[in-house]
Specification:
With 495 residues, the protein is α+β, with helices and mostly antiparallel strands. It contains 15 helices and nine strands. The longest helix has 31 residues. The two termini are 45 Å apart.
Length: 495
């Protein structure tokens, strides 16, 4: 994972800078949006392919899978998770060979450089050092270069906002399949595929549209920052999607009494199964369906149902914790099936949440590249990604995991040691994730707005940028320097 992180972060820092310097300034945001969208397509496709791999038994190459009695919905099922690493490793090696063939500069890079002759970097006096052509060529310049970045207010506001946003993005991407699985009673493989179906159009569409808007309206730095504030504010409102869930099926001893008792709520053991000496080491949920009253009750395992005989692979009998008789009450392996219509609106709103969240990424990269000196673009992105990875992406899944575990009702108990969680409180999980996401998204909006407020355009840009005319599509045709002044408010020049 460390090696994957090194390669991935380098691609986002050096790769983004490479794209930026290879195209004209007014096209940079659009191409960065495409670059980020394609980069997002990989993890999204990983969800879909991973869902297929999970549906394949992990040791399919060593055992006869036709003799395995478990199904993909069984809590003890272990899918072939390792195929994804093998497949992506081989593909990554092939792509690395292709990247080695790239030239130092793409064709047209020299022409594109003319569109950024005047720097838009935040005016904090750093140009005194960065304008020196020898600055940054020695490792001794790194402390000074780092100090220039961390004393750049708009850069730091963008870095903090991106880091905070990474908390929810990393946690959300890690636990979205698990959330779907538990809240909407889906199996693990299908939940991973649903997550992929939501992430692909949301993330890719948001980033492409964000980049396109930058190009279409020729947004200045402050206008791009304002677009980020608006997109983040919409995404903040959409975190209410986490309130969507299906009602959890009654689990005897957890949220409903055992069928033959009015007590024992909150305790998985009961008088009716005391002689069975049941444990929570293995989760083999069964559903008791009474055909007369048409009621369903889930029990943790056949043992907890007090069953002493097994009729076939999925049916049990002589269950002391079940009311009725074998003719009217069936006890079968698997969760009780219920009707729920909340999954579809949840997926739609989640797609919109992802859309508006990722819509800020191309603008964020574009603004970051502009508010630092040109000689520090790659280094600035690298520093920003260090903040995002170490303070955002790294603790994000840990925070989300802790929040989800806080809603656990039944833990696996193996030889007195607590293992993974078997059963969650759906309502508690929804509320906790909603509050966490809300607490993260609000500061993101604040720091994006602060970046807009503290950004100060250099004086050189106020004098040099001109706008000559508008083309047939009502798009600006840029003048000599290809840019528009941040302080140009005349009707003729206003974008």
């Amino acid at each position: 994972m460390v090696v994957i992180g090194i390669g991935g972060t380098t691609l986002y820092s050096v790769g983004t800078s490479f794209v930026d310097e290879s195209v004209a300034l007014q096209d940079s945001g659009f191409y960065i949006g495409i670059f980020y969208a394609v980069a997002t397509l990989g993890p999204a496709m990983g969800y879909i392919l991973g869902g297929q791999f999970i549906n394949t038994y992990t040791d399919f190459d060593k055992v006869d899978t036709s003799k395995i009695k478990m199904t993909t919905s069984d809590p003890g099922w272990v899918g072939a998770w390792w195929i994804g690493y093998l497949f992506s490793g081989i593909l990554g090696f092939v792509i690395a060979v292709v990247l080695f063939a790239y030239p130092r500069h793409l064709k047209g890079a020299a022409e594109a450089k003319k569109s950024r002759e005047v720097s838009l970097a935040h005016d904090n006096g750093a140009e005194v050092y960065t304008s020196n052509p020898d600055f940054g060529k020695s490792i001794k310049d790194m402390p000074k270069a780092f100090k220039i970045l961390v004393t750049n207010p708009p850069f730091m506001c963008l870095a903090v906002a991106g880091t905070i946003d990474a908390l929810v993005l990393s946690g959300f991407s890690t636990f979205l399949p698990k959330f779907i699985q538990n809240q909407f009673n889906q199996d693990a493989g299908w939940s991973a595929m649903l997550a992929g179906f939501v992430v692909i159009p949301g993330a890719c569409g948001g980033q492409i549209l964000g980049g396109y808007l930058l190009k279409r309206f020729g947004m200045s730095i402050k206008k791009a920052m304002m677009m980020m504030v608006i997109s983040s504010a919409i995404a903040t409102g959409l975190v209410a999607v986490f309130w969507f869930s299906c009602s959890a099926a009654n689990m005897a001893g957890i949220n409903t009494p055992y069928p033959n008792s009015t007590l024992d709520v909150g305790k998985i053991d009961s008088v009716c199964n005391a002689a069975c000496q049941c444990t929570t080491e293995s989760y083999n949920v069964v559903c008791a369906h009474d055909s007369i009253s048409n009621t369903q009750t889930q029990l943790f395992s056949p043992c907890h149902a007090g069953c002493t005989t097994q009729i076939d692979d999925k049916t049990y009998g002589n269950c002391s914790c079940i009311l009725g008789n074998s003719n009217t009450t069936l006890v079968k392996s698997g969760k009780c099936q219920g009707s729920c219509t909340a999954l579809e609106p949840f997926l739609v709103l989640t797609c919109l949440l992802i859309f508006f969240t990722f819509m800020t990424l191309p603008a964020g990269a574009y603004v970051t590249l502009r508010c630092v000196p040109d000689s520090q673009r790659a280094f600035g992105l690298g520093v920003q990604w260090v903040f995002i990875r170490f303070l955002g992406s790294f603790p994000g899944p840990i925070m989300f995991g802790a929040v989800i575990d806080h809603s656990c009702l039944v833990w696996r108990d193996k030889c007195g040691e607590r293992g993974s969680c078997w059963i969650y409180d759906n309502q508690d999980m929804s509320m906790n994730i909603f509050l966490l996401a809300l607490a993260v998204k609000i500061p993101v909006c604040v720091f994006y707005y602060l970046a807009k407020v503290v950004y100060k355009a250099p004086k050189a840009s106020e004098k040099s940028f001109t706008l000559t005319t508008m083309d047939e599509g009502n798009r600006p045709v840029l003048g000599t320097n290809g840019l528009v002044s941040e302080n140009d408010h005349t009707e003729e020049h206003k974008l």
